[in-house]
Specification:
The structure holds 2 protein chains of 2 kinds. By secondary structure, chain A is mostly helical. Chain A has one domain. Chain A has 8 helices and 2 strands. A two-stranded antiparallel ribbon of chain A has the order 1-2. The longest helix of chain A has 40 residues. Chain A is globular, with a radius of gyration of 21 Å. Chain A starts with 8 loop residues before the first helix and ends with a helix. Chain B is mostly helical. Chain B has one domain. Helix content of chain B is 81%, strand content 0%. In chain B, helix 4 packs parallel to helix 7 and helix 7 packs antiparallel against helix 8. The longest helix of chain B has 33 residues. Chain B is globular. The chains are: A mainly alpha, B mainly alpha. Chains A and B meet through helix 4 and helix 5 of A and helix 7, helix 8 and helix 9 of B.
């Protein structure tokens, strides 16, 4: 049997975070199917009038919200970390900050995809005629989120194309900073132009079961993504050390 | 003061910033006057785009929707013409590292950034003027019923070029930098594009200034933010 090196303290922390997060995500799933009500009262956010026909009730479709919202929080976190990491890399030039920017851009790509997919699935049903296949409608928040997702992808493509490590770090930091203001834009998007995105969740959260499930979901799913960022960060740090050893 | 390095950084013989800026601007326009590379590539791109779009929409009826569509197409062409121009300028830099040489001036690198930005704006505005001139006959387009739009054009150009000039200085050093600039710039410049088209649509739709206000606010915010970032980061991105 091969001998493994003992796990470092930081790896244990990451594992603990991931485990906690995964438990939280499981509890979220349980709560959202067994604890929250089947249908929110008529007249609230979740009953919409489609273009044609009678108003439809969205019934259980709102449950996707418990994955959608925490993923949006995680995307906001990734975006903020990109900005902060970029600024601190420029100020200190420590490779750890670059690793942090890259790790959060990578995880941002995943969280952004989750937000886009869950949002589109729900919107397709809720904003369309109540059946799948009504299509993408260029709603401002949907669109700004897509742009942010593309910007995460652009950061990763851009840094891979740089010839020298110095250019790579520099470009990563600068693009991380440029990408930072996109999240406030996503959150403000519902105030500009025509929007069908829910503006407030107060109706929905007035049901205590929904509010509790939302809080559990926010913590649990956010923890999963934080653990993912930490994991990718540790990975990039390792790669940076190996590169440094090689070039020494 | 006795440190020799500080003397190099700030020699007494260095021209004042305004003079240095004027020299940088003169350099940008002299190069363009001699090579005419930017205006020809951007202008040709604009002309070809109008022809291609014109062909695609030649059978459409000219109505309100058509006019709005043409305005949107002009914005699309503008943003890509800007990318063409930025790439062309970056290509000229790459060969002989002109940018590296310019950054040796004993002033803040932001001065080089501003000179690049101003010249890029002048060239883009010239291209857009050509674009409109061509669109009037070829796309059956009448723009001048909305004079407020003329004010929006330079604001939008600033929002596209401020991050564009910054990013082009980074991508110009790599192979395949041309496609990279498009990939890197478009997500960042999309808020500007969205506000430009939003304002255009609001004005064209008869909503007036009030309808365009949220978009104008977004555009002004983007302009200020990107300009600030460019001034701060240009020197950092190109140091060493």
């Amino acid at each position: 049997m091969s001998q493994h090196a003992p796990l470092s303290k930081s790896t244990w922390v990451i594992l603990a975070l991931a485990l906690l997060g995964l438990i939280g995500a499981q509890v979220t799933l349980y709560l959202s199917y067994n604890y929250t009500p089947v249908q929110i009262t008529e007249g609230t956010l979740w009953v919409v009038t489609p273009d044609r026909g009678a108003p439809i009730n969205l019934y259980e479709s709102y449950r996707i919200f418990f994955i959608h919202l925490p993923s949006a929080y995680a995307t906001a976190l990734c975006c903020t970390v990109c900005l902060v990491g970029g600024v601190f890399w420029l100020l200190t030039r420590r490779p750890a900050w670059e690793a942090l920017v890259v790790a959060s851009a990578e995880v941002g790509l995943i969280t952004g995809a989750v937000v886009l997919l869950t949002g589109t699935f729900w919107a397709d049903y809720a904003w369309g005629s109540g059946r799948i296949g009504s299509g993408w409608n260029w709603e401002p928040r949907l669109t700004t989120m897509l742009i942010l997702w593309l910007a995460f992808a652009a950061l990763l493509v851009l840094r891979r194309s740089m010839d020298t490590p110095r250019q790579r770090s520099m470009t990563t930091a600068v693009y991380g900073i440029l990408l930072g203001p996109l999240y406030p834009l996503v959150s403000k998007a519902i105030e500009i132009g025509q929007t069908s995105h829910p503006r407030s969740f107060s109706d929905l959260l007035s049901a205590p079961e929904v509010a509790i499930t939302k809080n559990v979901a926010s913590i649990g799913i956010l923890l999963v993504f934080v653990a993912l960022i930490a994991l990718r960060f540790a990975n990039h740090r390792l790669a940076q050390r190996i590169d440094a050893e090689r070039s020494a | 003061m006795t440190n020799p390095e500080s003397k190099i950084q700030n020699p007494k013989s260095a021209p004042p910033a305004l003079q240095a800026f004027a020299a940088l601007m003169r350099r940008e326009f002299t190069v363009e006057l001699r090579t005419k590379s930017l205006l020809t590539s951007m202008g040709l791109f604009a002309a070809l785009s109008v022809v291609v779009v014109g062909l695609a929409v030649r059978t459409l009826p000219v109505n309100e929707t058509y006019h709005r569509f043409v305005l949107g197409m002009l914005w699309v062409t503008s943003i890509f013409a800007a990318v063409v121009g930025l790439n062309r300028a970056a290509q000229a830099d790459r060969g002989r590292n002109f940018l590296g040489a310019l950054l040796l001036i004993p002033h803040d690198p932001a001065l080089v950034y501003v000179s690049r930005l101003v010249s890029a704006m002048v060239f883009l505005l010239a291209t857009q003027a050509l674009l409109v001139l061509l669109a009037i006959p070829l796309l059956r387009f009448g723009m001048f019923d909305q004079p407020l739009l003329l004010l929006v054009v330079p604001l939008a150009d600033l929002g596209i070029l401020a991050p564009g000039v910054l990013l082009a200085s980074g991508t110009s050093r790599t192979r395949g930098g041309e496609s990279l600039l498009t990939i890197a710039l478009l997500p960042i410049a999309v808020p500007v594009f969205a506000s430009a088209t939003g304002i255009t649509d609001a004005l064209q739709g008869g909503l007036g200034f009030a309808g365009a206000q949220p978009w104008l606010l977004l555009l002004a915010t983007c302009d200020a933010m990107f300009l600030g970032m460019g001034l701060l980061l240009f020197g950092k991105l190109n140091e060493g």
